[in-house]
Structures
1.
Amino acid sequence: MDPYEPNIDPILIQGASFIGQAMMNRLIGEGKTGITTNSVYDSWTPARAYQHYHGAVRILSEAASVQYASPIKQNFSDLRPGLGYDPRTVSWKFPALWRGGEWHLRDIVDYELTAAMGALEHMAYYRERWLRNFYTVQKRAISWNGAPYAFVVPPDQRDSVTAVEMLNILRFGEVEVEQAEAAFTADGVEYPKGSYVVRVAQPFGAFAKTMMEKQVYPDLREYPGGPPQRPYDVTAHTLPMQMGVKVITVNQPFQASLTKVEKIAAASGAVEAGPVTAGPAKAYLLEHDSNASIKALNRLMKDKAEVYWAAKPFSAKNKLYSAGTMIVHGGAGIETKLQAIARELSVNFIAVNDRLNVQAYKLIPPRIGLYKSHVASMDEGWTRLIFENYEFSFTNILDKDIRAGGLRSKYDVIIIPGELSETQIIEGHRNGTVPPEFAGGIGEAGVQNLRDFVNEGGTLVTMDKATEFAAKQFALPVKNALEGVKPQDFYVPGSLLKIVLDTENPIAYGMPRETAAFVEQNAAFDVTGNAKAVGNYPLTNPLMSGWILGESKIFGKTAVVDVPVGRGRIILLSIRPQFRAQVRGTYKLLFNSVYYGPATLTTYE
């Protein structure tokens, strides 16, 4: 159903309808009822519609569940509207009502088999037309002569490792990537040798274009002036914004000496030689800009290295270093370890013998507990994945572990991931709906144990909906400015919004002052008292890609909050800082939070 992403060739959009109607025709012809087409799923995000950007048609069919394999009984009067259809009303895309009754696993198999045979019969009958259309789609792709002409990824990146990762994602999607063998000029701007170029006129240029450009999602309503029509999935997928990579759109054709590349590798890192000729340097500096610096930190922590974060900007070797720069204390054998880390992770350490005399946070290996509710949270799985990828040591903690208490003796940091409401965290599954060992949440006892954990010096990091749990249960000096606001007055269904960061707060170390954050109907806080605003929405429309309604509701509101509580602290990340393990540009907000909590402020001489 609408909308479909504008980079998809119209032939493919119509093709999905063409084959879907054939499948439905065979189902209806066999007397099967309760079937809809052109409903539920849109064709907006390439996360699902990958085929549409690669010269093929994507179709998806689903049947009503029987909840594993037991027959269910469904009354007609209990059926409710879905996205784009009403099961109790006849329409052109829902022509035969299912009147209720029993529904079996056998029914699912029969319906799906008929649908599959309808698709195969259709493809066989119209095979020449399908082949001709596929040829036309690919011919149009390689003949593209509009704007933009190309995207340029220059080598001077804030996080060059992530930039290379982005290019390899495009290569994985079969996008052709070229590298400049010499400097060139495009749209009046000179780019250096080594710049990467992605031209749109190529077989899968539509995929490159949709991943690299800003999305403008249409303002769709249930009825004129009514609430927004909910998208099936998110509305923004702009890869450079998500990953914090600088990409320039070039509209006019240009000449350059370019060579196609296959797998792209980041330049090997190194330890810049210090001014000493024997023994290690006094210290080694690593700037905080790259996500790879966090992986390097995790390896150093496992090696029991002495590591600090500078709390203020400082100068060394005639260069100004920003707050958050990593200071690795020198010692026997440390340079050999740093050389290995530098080579493997493409980071650069600077050896110094200067007396730094800078305020700094002494870091320790944090004992991390990642909350895993029995109410399944995909966000917990994505968090676990990125922690594994970035080599964090952590333990999953369950409801029973939080109810048992004694948390501070086991953990320095507890993380409550997103997608879990206050009710789900506290109450969990109702008794009788799951086996007894999976029923219930953390309960009031667990809430009190979390309060004790923070008051005793622990750090609680909450994300997405869980920030509202923390705000209310800990009576924090914050208030969600969007509480009770109706969707027609404010709506942001998975978009990239600008936030402005206090980069001298440890939570935002290594971040640019302004960045794109993934937001999906998240809280926006007013902060008072001792709560510190670390990331705010600007006083103008924050939309960078996707869709937002009622943007003025969040002007100047806070998305990232640091709240000291007792001897510990609570960090509210009310954005989605690690959404689906995609948004590399805001990973550091989570990573920094983990190390910041248990760190000790001192002076590094």
2.
Amino acid sequence: MAGMKHVALHDADILELIVEHLAPGKECTSEAQRQPISALARVSKAFHIPATKALWARLPSLHHLLLLLPEFDTMYRAYRTEHPFGDLKDVRLSERVSPATWARFRNRAAAVRHLSQGRFSDVLVLHDESWSYLARLLGDHGPLFPSLRTVSGWQPTTSCEDLRLLACPLLQSVAIYHAFTDQGWAGSCPLAVQDVLINAPGLTDLKLVSCSDDFFTHITPEALAQLRSLWFEVDQPTDCAPREWYPNAAALRVLSALPALEHLRVELALDYNDTEFMGFGSLITLCILDSGCGDATWFLERCSSPRLRELTIDLTNLYFQEFEWEDMHPLCVAIAGHTPQLRELQIFFGFFGEMPEQIPDMLLTAAHPLFALRHLTTLSLWLSYGEFILSDSVLEAFAEAWPALVSLEICFSTFRPYTPGGLPRPHPASVTLRSFHALSRHCPHLQVLHIPHLYVPPEDCYGSVNVDGAEHSPGHQLWKMAICRAFIVDAHACAQVLHHIFPHLDVGHSRAAYLRSHDACQEDHFFRTAWLNTLDALEGCQTSTSNAELSYHDASQCESSGR
């Protein structure tokens, strides 16, 4: 037996399977994975090669690779002795490296598939001259990282020599932070990105964060033509970020003509003067971060893609210009008019300026243009502060307009507080169980439901479970539900009705969905208790049903055996 174990540990396929079990994909994505794999690499010769490959495949910082160079290792140890809590910066490497050391360095670099710059301080570890030094050591012997697939969180040096050394034929995705075309850069960074695109024909995913507004105007359209996915956003709030970090008119014109671009995430703070274009004809998914209030509406009117299926609009970054109720209808008109084949729509609101005292018809009127999107499967409206008021008639209209819905989420993070003292009162037009019957009938594929209000008086539960006299869809597959503010008088009776309408609700996932969306605010304790108690009661109903079905099955088997 011992001999068989010994033979097995020399079988490369078996070793690979064991390492694959500890690090799926043969790369470490977390520190918890790195520890057991590192132990395998240290203590076992048999596991050394596959475990080492897994350790180096995802490099969390370039620092680990640089320690293989004796000159850098010596500098680092000396610096840490004098500055235990400091960070080594601006290292200039110049010493000769032995062939054996360089071979070890190249061997480790060849295993790297995913590279991150690590902590922000790691950005400044190497001086520009050190990257030129590495380029000289490399010579004409192929890419420095021949297996590299992704580069994340990378801030290039002034010369951008580091970007050129990252290029390889297998490279697929690059994320670059703080790359500019002025302040002494002399266009070197866009040209370096252009070289990377040319030398990495498989690079189709590019992310730029807080870069010059005219960045793409310095790159030839031929080099950009291979891009399928593009991010251009800012990592600071609108009131802090320079306007020069948002894409300008010229950059948008360049991007609008890219033939293969299918996925775009763009942060806008536009000057509408001389910003005319029409394009983006290949987009499938689009995310707009609107920092100017109205930029999303303006952009959609210039987006001509008939293939657009997923649209996300983020309005949470508005500071100086508040989003008003009057802005909702034009936005919905633009969405419906320019995305006729849309399947998924998400809109994130910060808060509405001068939020009026609402009536349900306000949301129904604003969203009515969206009823033209008959293929819509996902609708999400998220509000950071405040609330929408819904009613049975609003949800019934939604259900009739979008029969293909799979997910409907209208959720809030923080509510307007109600007046303390005594029990809170439900809104007079709140949602009742009647709307659940409508959703069950009209939306047979609905699986996720998250709504702001639910009012369940005793008379809606007792007697007939079908409160509106219409049939619901038996065996409906809805499995996750959350209610932001539930006013439920009898949790057990309400749970029985829910179990009857939606027999496949998953209590665990429903509870988790609610808790993720709402902090334990004291003012919402009443609603929190009401909904969580209802879920607990629903779990009891499901257990009773399962036990009854099991008893019936056992009785049937006994009867069959007796015959």
3.
Amino acid sequence: MATENKIDISNPEAITYQTEEIAYTILGGIRMEGLDRLRVTIKIEVVNRKFRHYLNNPDIAALAIRQNLDLYSITQVEKLARLIADRLEVGVTAVSKDLSDITGELERYRLQQIEERQKDESVRQKVLTEAEKETAIKFLQSKNLLQATNDMIGRSGIVGEELNRLIMWLIYTSRKTAKPLHIISMGSSGTGKSHLQE
């Protein structure tokens, strides 16, 4: 289980958060997409009841509660806090604080996971095989490099506009230089400017 008031992410599909009295488990983990919401399925159960002799209904208070909600919806969170306090016979203030802490911890965890994924994706680079390198070098050393490049652009699906497509390709490849060039495509609607740019 988690250390007191800390989230335990050792199992991303069953993230836990435990206080002295209550254990919360996020079943199924959290989605990394859609930072505008934090939908979870949460299981709440009392693990160490402070005042056993004050229970009105011990049988129901011993049962776990399972609920799905958006932790960014204050209405849903407040409703769940009241339900937990009523059903499990615990303090509503403590439960509200727990839910707020869980939300903050899950936000940090999700942002950390997203940053790690972005780093992993940026590190991945296409590595050419020796055969691919030889083919590329041979192509770059050809006598009519611009004509060969223009022919390849044509084979990729851009038919016609031979001069314009070559100029655009040269300008687009300047992005690799210290001073990249820019281009604006002008023309009537529906003449294929977007297709040419792609």
4.
Amino acid sequence: MLTKATDDGLKKYCYIYRSMAYNGLANYKNSVADMNKAIALDPADLASYTDRGKAKAFAKDFNSARQDFLFILTKDTTGKQAQAAFYFLGKIAYQQNYFQQSVLYYDKYVALDSTDAEVYFNRGAAKDMLMDAAGSISDYTRAIHYKPNYMEAYANRGVAKINLLSKKGNVIPVKNQTIDACADLKRAKQLGDDTVDDMIFIHCTSK
């Protein structure tokens, strides 16, 4: 198709679709190369920068990926591509241990779309890393509101509730203090999360 295509618009979409195919095969180098060609044919298409940034992020080329998403924000600060940029900038910042920056990017995403369960979960995880247990609990609660069977959010909220008790001076909280946290941990277990077993044994099992 590419060798026969003469229209630039058709060529662009051929490169985009092939890039997506490479991305699905985890061949990120070729995916990025094809998105480079698509962008050369239509530099104004911000979605192509999003797709290229995603491929770079999957390849763990975080600094280059960040540049694509920051470029998008020079052109769009409220639309779908801006949302994608804030989302991936939040993820990249988290991967690079810039947790406060990650929270700030997710704040900007939430200002555009306040109903995304995954973004609340991701922001909660970043707040966990900042030892902001109360803030993370609030975000996990919102994530569960929008996705009621969010297993990971129940697990993380349960752990965060125990961490909050520990911050208040209860190194090992007693059972009557962990009832609420244990309800979350047990719900996560019910939904299929076996990683909470140790926490349930330590904090929720009668001795």
